[in-house]
Design a protein that fits this description.
716 residues; mainly beta; Maltoporin, Chain A; 29-stranded antiparallel sheet; 3 helices; 43 strands; 67% strand; globular; Outer membrane protein beta-barrel family protein; signal; Beta-barrel_TonB_sf; membrane; OMP_b-brl_3
Length: 716
């Protein structure tokens, strides 16, 4: 840990010295055939309700959408998971249309998008009323408008090596002719995903310590990620768009090997057993969309859109446990868990800029139908026999009716925007075994307010307030037990409540290069996954439940400067205070709070402008923070990358080294009441990646893309 901190300290000292010597910003010009492009540093524009990171015609635009998003203000990336203010409940949109994919699927999609096609990235930490009330923040990727007829595309291939290898190949194509345009991308990936968990559990009643080592090896032979969209311009005022995107991975095979050692209080080995879990997890996520747009004028439009999502996820696991030292008989069980979720949405949105104000309003209808069928069988004398007590059929039906209105007004030095969104939610969750049903209806209002004052040419002050909702993930509502081994299982709760949060922030910026933001978030009834020890039966239960509340208070400092014509720096980070309140089944109360800090330093270097050689160094860290009632330890990541342009800038080759010293390994501890356990986690994040991309066709074409995605898809 000391080495990267020393390296970062040296880099910051050099940055401070270089900044003191830096001359005013200059614009650099690069010739690309007959077209002259003015390359400049990314510009940060702080608006009343969002921060816009303008990357058009910058060095950063030579990368892909994933790299650009990771370097955007207020965004952090850890183990390929995006977070803002410590929360991963983020909505990612493209041209204000939501992307349903998450995790590795989202990363693959964004890596296939060329940075040259991106105008800017909007980071909205407190989304206005037009956005769904769910999610803590929004990242909106704005694509350049397609104005030139022609055809272009790119092919990419990548090889990644950690403990195991991963491979990827993809193609993107764009075509426009007259009133018709077509765009599409397809990526094929394969490889092995690995993580390792070392867990220690202390059972005081038996005076035993259980230590297990969980090695998860997940082999994905064929992952398909695709996106296709077509636009037809009916006339100058009307446009029709139709699209489909999705992810399919049918051949996922995982093998979990878990030896468990049982020690006495004197650290003597008493017994041990080995659990082997053979899993198959085929899944698919397909989204269809259609959108119609009518322009009343250049400042006024009406949009109608609809989506249909079909999500399927199946998990079959064959689990066998062999016991040693003791005479306990081997145990084996088999589960087949099929999940099918269908989502339909329809909405209409109006926006218009009038003399008295800019007005936005809209209506939305969404319907979710989910079904989860769990079949649990035990091995009885070599024959699998269904166990009806542990099998279950769970159905969930949800309808949300929403409407919103917002208005904004600009004066000479003031900008004010306010809005109100209302959502009526009806749910019906029905479980066969255990026999439980939750049928309810609730209505919530979500006000928003944004005020911005330009104190002078270089100084700007902003205030924002908003209310948000986080509905439980669909699988968390299922009350059946999901066993990982004979001694551990996950259980949901059909009566989980949605979490409501109030968010306030005050921010200051200087020359749009330096910023400071003070924020406060209070969440009521947040969903938390509690690790509960059954000390009598030696079982560890992962229980999903609501806790009374949590608060998050912090300060974020940021700077984005050019220290030299060849050196750009983006810095952000600051302290935070996190607290949570828990009430357990016996009525006892537990309050926990923790001070923490996070930071991210990104250095970009132009090593040779003539040969197109660039490099970047990134360092991020997180100190300890709360994860439910548990405490997650600190983690950090030092990464290094090089990029070289080839063939008159038509191609590029990139080499990156990620998590160089394995700082992403962290520890999660639960020490409260009669709970005494911890685990360490490592997700194979120390890797190197070699990629190649070749661009072909015309260089000035891009179509409208990414039709409507919905708030409901985030919870898949």
């Amino acid at each position: 840990m000391k080495t990267p901190i020393i390296l970062l300290s040296i880099a910051l000292l050099l940055s401070s010295y270089s900044f003191a010597q830096t001359k005013p910003d200059t614009i650099k010009t690069t010739e690309l055939k007959e077209l002259s492009l003015d390359y400049k540093k990314p510009k940060i524009i702080r608006k009343a309700d969002r921060v816009e990171f303008n990357v058009e015609n910058t060095i950063l635009s030579s990368s892909n959408a994933w790299e650009i998003v990771k370097r955007s203000p207020n965004v952090q990336s850890s183990a390929d998971q995006l977070s803002i203010r410590g929360s991963q409940s983020i909505i990612v949109t493209i041209n204000d249309k939501r992307v349903s994919l998450t995790g590795d699927e989202l990363k693959a999609l964004l890596q296939s998008m060329n940075g040259t096609d991106i105008k800017s990235v909007e980071v909205i930490t407190n989304p206005p009323a037009k956005y769904d009330a769910s999610g803590s923040a929004v990242i909106n990727i704005k694509i350049k408008a397609n104005k030139t007829a022609g055809y272009k595309g790119s092919v990419t291939t990548a090889y990644e090596q950690g403990i195991y290898a991963r491979k990827n190949v993809g193609i993107s194509q764009y075509y426009k002719s007259g009133k018709f345009s077509l765009s599409g991308s397809y990526n094929f990936g394969s490889g092995v995903y690995y993580n390792k968990i070392n867990e220690v559990i202390n059972y005081p009643e038996q005076q035993q310590q259980w230590e297990n080592i969980l090695s998860r090896k997940n082999k994905r032979d064929a992952e398909h990620t695709y996106r296709f969209n077509t636009d037809y311009t009916i006339d100058s005022l009307n446009t029709l768009s139709i699209g489909i995107d999705g992810y399919i991975s049918k051949n996922n095979h995982a093998l979990y090997n878990v030896p468990t050692y049982i020690f006495t209080s004197d650290k003597e080995l008493q017994s041990y057993f080995v659990t082997k879990n053979n899993r198959l997890t085929p899944n698919s996520n397909i989204n269809y969309n259609i959108q119609y747009e009518h322009l009343f004028s250049s400042k006024e439009k009406l949009t109608a859109s609809s989506t249909y999502t079909d999500y399927r996820y199946e998990t079959t696991q064959d689990v066998k446990t062999d016991y040693f030292v003791t005479d306990t008989q081997s145990q084996r069980f088999f589960t087949d868990n099929e999940q099918h979720i269908r989502i339909f949405t329809a909405q209409m949105d109006y926006s218009g800029a009038h003399q008295w104000a800019t007005l936005e309003s809209g209506l939305k209808y969404s319907r979710v139908k989910a079904e989860n069928n769990l079949d649990f069988s035990r091995d009885v004398d070599g024959t699998l026999i269904n166990d009806p007590l542990l099998s279950n059929l769970f159905r969930y039906d949800e309808t949300v009716l929403a409407g919103y209105i917002s208005a904004g007004k600009d004066w000479k030095t003031w900008t004010v925007k306010t809005g109100l969104r209302g959502e009526l939610t009806s749910i019906d969750g029905n479980s066969v075994n255990p026999a439980q049903r939750n049928k309810q209806q609730y209505f919530n209002l979500f006000p928003t307010l944004f005020i911005q004052n330009k104190l002078s040419e270089n100084h700007q002050l902003s205030f924002s307030y908003g209310r948000r909702i986080t509905r439980p993930a669909y699988n968390y509502l299922n009350p059946s037990k999901s066993y990982f081994s004979p001694n551990s299982y996950l259980i949901g709760d059909v009566e989980l409540k949605p979490a409501l949060s109030d968010q306030l922030s005050i921010s200051y910026s200087y020359k749009s290069k330096y910023g400071a933001e003070l924020y406060y978030i209070h969440e009521k009834n947040p969903t938390s996954q509690l690790s509960i020890q059954d000390n009598e039966n030696n079982i560890l239960i992962q229980k999903v439940t609501n806790i009374p509340g949590s608060t998050y208070f912090g300060l974020t400092l940021s700077a984005s400067v050019d220290l030299a014509p060849w050196w750009s720096v983006n810095l952000q980070g600051g302290p935070s205070l996190q607290s949570s309140n828990f009430i357990f089944d016996d009525g006892s109360n537990l309050k926990k709070h923790i001070w923490g800090a996070d930071g991210n330093a990104d250095f970009q270097f132009t090593l040779s402008k003539k040969s197109g050689l660039t490099a970047d160094v990134n360092f991020m860290f997180n100190t300890s923070h709360l994860q439910g009632p548990a405490v997650a330890g600190s983690s950090s990541n030092l990464s290094l990358g090089f990029k070289k342009k080839l063939f008159a800038d038509k191609a590029e080759i990139t080499l990156s080294l990620q998590d160089i010293y394995r700082g992403q390994k962290f520890k999660v501890s639960s020490y409260y009441k009669d709970q005494s356990n911890y685990y360490t986690y490592y997700g194979d994040t120390q890797r190197f990646r070699l990629s190649f991309k070749y661009n072909f066709g015309k260089s000035t074409i891009k179509g409208r893309e990414a039709k409507q995605k919905t708030e409901e898809q985030k919870r898949l």
